[in-house]
Design a protein that fits this description.
This protein is of the alpha+beta class and about 450 residues long. It has 13 helices and 29 strands. It has 3 domains: about 100 residues, no CATH class; about 150 residues, no CATH class; about 150 residues, 7 Propeller (Methylamine Dehydrogenase, Chain H), CATH 2.130.10. The strands form 7 sheets. A 5-stranded mixed sheet has the order 10-11-12-13-17. It is globular, with a radius of gyration of 23 Å.
């Protein structure tokens, strides 16, 4: 690049590097392709100055960072500390992780925008009717796990090439929910290879099953309710939503060994209210449970308590109808209720919710709602799925369900379950429908994907 009198190119290289270091991640990826000098300067920032770490901490919401990295230490009060430390690369706590790790985290977050203008590709998976329709979905490390009416839990691998599906284990009755147990707590765990690979599922037969995907060992937990409706995890801890569970106690379990599926009860949460818990969310040391009457029960500090003391959950709100799913997005709570409303709490006001009538907004009856990273997905009758790209809290504040980012139409009438993931070069949505099928819709950018652009973008000499 030839610098003119008033351009940045006339500055010394050190000053140009300083200016480039102030760019956001997308702008830096573009700047890297401007000329050979800038390519070298940005590469130096990437490899020596922890550029992508600072971009992640600055541009990605903390709750999304935890979801993408699986680093529990990035949540809560540590957020501000890490942001401050990231301004000085010499003392950054995360500097031990390679810069490629943070570049890929930033790239995965950025790739979610492909759902707006990306190229769409569909893959249809069909399975035997003996498995029954899919009732829930979960994705981890590009493997899709499906729970079925028959009680079976199935893994789906190599979706694009040589498809392989395998029945992992079986409940006696319909599977209601699947969640992952992740042993990653700190960067030290990643560097030492201590990344657990387990799932836990709930069913209508009152049991939870913890399954180690590497050793194929499992543990069955008999819940003392009529049925388990939902299960959610935080790190290696998990909690289930079950009928009458607050009167009888809502235990928090934890996985105690990486090599097998053994568990123990950390503590048990109680309430004086009679409630059939239909949904639950788990974030940091907070458990938020919702019941069939629309009541929300909260307990904070659960991971720091012990089984010796009685732990009481407090009712904090009532949103008027049976709660089907709950998501905690930092300080924001999102609930989907059986009357077709989406309830989104205001960021600065605890438990004050804005209500969105999804039927009036999209003229379809909703059947399931899923949030992953910066994407909200609403599955509806008539086989429609509405996608919304919400990368920041400001987007949630101005949420307009009437203007989706993308609409998917399947060939079936009902959406039984949804899950959102990233296959490495773009996001995908797995849609479970009736007639024993799963539709996978992938979104890719035209041309090269984002990580390649960030690393090997073509430059002009």
């Amino acid at each position: 690049m030839n610098g003119t009198k008033d351009s940045i190119g006339c500055l010394p290289e050190e000053m140009q590097a300083y200016v480039l270091s102030k760019l956001d991640g997308k702008s830096a990826a573009v700047a890297k392709r401007v000329c050979k000098l800038w390519n070298e300067l940005v590469t130096g920032l990437e490899t020596c100055m922890h550029f992508w770490l600072r971009c992640c901490l600055k541009e990605i919401p903390p709750y999304t960072m935890v979801e993408l990295t699986r680093l529990m230490q990035l949540s809560g009060g540590r957020e501000n500390t890490l942001v401050e430390l990231a301004t000085d690369w010499r003392t950054s706590l995360e500097s031990k992780l390679p810069w490629m790790f943070w570049r890929e985290v930033y790239a995965e977050f950025s790739r979610c925008r492909y759902i707006k203008h990306g190229v769409e590709k569909r893959i249809d998976l069909h399975f035997f009717p003996t498995h029954g329709d899919v009732t829930c979905l979960y994705v981890q490390d590009n493997v899709i796990y499906s729970g079925h009416e028959s009680g079976q839990v199935i893994s789906w691998k190599n979706i694009e090439e040589d498809l392989h599906y395998h029945v992992l284990y079986k409940h006696h009755r319909r599977v209601t929910s699947i969640a992952g147990l992740d042993m990653v707590m700190t960067t030290k765990d990643i560097l030492n290879g201590m990344c657990g690979n387990k799932i836990v599922s709930s069913s209508m037969d009152t049991t939870l099953i913890v399954y180690n995907l590497e050793t194929e060992k499992s543990t069955t937990i008999q819940h003392y309710s009529k049925q388990a409706n939902y299960v959610r995890s935080w790190g290696n801890h998990f909690v289930a939503a079950a009928n009458r569970s607050l009167i009888q106690g809502q235990p928090i379990w934890r996985s105690v060994d990486q090599s097998n599926a053994e568990t123990e009860i950390l503590c048990t949460l109680y309430s004086q209210s009679a409630a059939d818990i239909t949904a639950v969310a788990f974030w940091e040391d907070t458990v938020l449970s919702g019941d069939e009457m629309g009541n929300l029960f909260l307990w904070t500090g659960c991971l720091g308590c012990g089984q010796e003391d009685k732990q009481d959950m407090a009712q904090v709100a009532n949103i008027g109808c049976c709660i089907k799913s709950i998501y905690i997005l930092g300080k924001r709570i999102v609930c989907y209720t059986s009357d077709g409303f989406l309830h989104v709490s205001r960021y600065k006001e605890d438990y004050v919710f804005d209500k969105y009538d999804m039927y009036k907004c999209i003229f379809k009856t909703p059947e399931c709602v899923v949030i992953h990273g910066s994407v909200l997905a609403i599955g509806c009758r008539s086989g429609f799925v509405y996608l919304y790209h919400l990368p920041s809290g400001r987007d949630w504040d101005t949420l307009d369900l009437a203007t989706p980012t993308r609409v998917i139409q399947t060939s079936h009438d009902h959406i039984n379950a949804l899950v959102i993931g990233d296959i490495g070069d773009g996001p995908f949505v797995a849609i479970a429908t009736e007639d024993y099928s799963i539709t996978i819709v992938q979104y890719r950018r035209h041309g090269l994907d984002l990580p390649q652009n960030m690393c090997n973008g073509s430059v002009r000499k």
